[in-house]
Amino acid sequence: MLSRAPILCMLMMASAAAAQPAAAPSAQPKRMDTTRMGTATGAEREPEAIAELEKMGAFLRTLTTFAVEGVGSTEEALTTGQKIQYPGIIDLLATRPNRLRANVYSTRKRREFFYDGKTFTVFAPRQGFYATIDAPPTIKELLDKAEDRLGLVLPLSDLFELGIDPALTAKITSGFFVATDVVGDEVCNHYAFRQPGVDWQIWIRDGDQPLPCKWVITGTEATDQLDYEMEFTWDLAPEVPANAFSFVPPEGADRINMASIKR
User: What is the phi/psi pair of residue 212, to 5°?
Assistant: First the structure.
């Protein structure tokens, strides 16, 4: 989110393996504090907001095996200036340090990603093409290699990086608490942040499991004022099939090369 939000606005959507039934909210949502909102000028950087963001990142890094489902939408601007919204789903299953499976489904694109600790495969089922390369030994190294050498941003990759690099948090120019809301069946605290090139909002689950419930990302460049949003459902104890992270080419699929990019 912090490092790649402008790219996320253009590239991604999300969903995951079956999630546990969510518990009913333990409290009624609080009403928005209009007095407090009246003092939020957008130039503030509330310590509480930054602390809650870092707390969420720290909790995400404690997860070893998890599945997350994201349902959302992204926008595209036509040459006429009219905005068109496209729905999409991403599902992601991960086992740290070296197993990852992600599927991206939308009306315009479908991609499947497989990482088993040794190889990384991208499969385009509609076209019947796949590409496989040797992969580094950890998810973190895979994310870096995919972006630096292939120009590829994997779905929800920020979930693995949030809070690791203080320089990313330092890019935030403002951040403040908005309100406590209900997202799905979860009570979540809503925060709004701003950094160069992008405004973004995040709803973080209240309580001892501060998971992201929802985010909204808006590009602020003159040519990129588009919204990307997603709502998440988490499973912190998913069933993981033995072959979940291995790719077996379906009959008729063709292997192609995965090209590197020049910097």
Answer: -70, 130
Phi-psi region of 145 (alpha: psi -120 to 50; beta: other; left: phi over 0): alpha
Domain 5-18+30-236, CATH: 2.50.20.10
CA separation for the pair 212, 163 (Å, rounded): 13
Q: Give DSSP secondary structure letters for 16-63.
A: -SPPPPPPPPSSPPPPP-HHHHHH--S--B-HHHHHHHHHHHHHHTT-
Per-residue pLDDT of the chain (263 residues; tens, 9 = 90+): 444 443 333 223 222 222 333 334 444 444 444 444 434 555 689 999 999 998 998 999 899 999 999 999 988 888 898 989 999 999 999 999 999 999 999 888 899 999 999 999 999 999 999 999 999 999 989 988 888 888 888 878 777 666 566 777 888 999 999 999 999 999 999 999 999 999 999 999 999 999 999 999 998 886 667 888 999 999 999 999 989 999 999 999 999 998 765 55
Question: Exposed, middle or buried: residue 252 (CB in 10 Å: 0-12, 13-18, 19+)?
Answer: exposed
CB atoms within 10 A of CB 83: 12
Quote the CA–CA distance of 165 and 94 in Å, as a whole number.
Answer: 21
Helix (H) / strand (E) containing 6:
helix 5-11
Could you tell me which of 54, 108, 116, 137 has the C-alpha nearest to residue 246?
Answer: 116
Bridge partners, residue 247, by sequence: none
Distance of CA 196 to the CA centre of its chain: 19
Tell me the domain boundaries of the chain. 5-18+30-236
What does the block give as tokens for 250?
Answer: 């379906």
What does the alpha-carbon distance between residue 79 and residue 206 come to, in Å, rounded to a whole number? 42
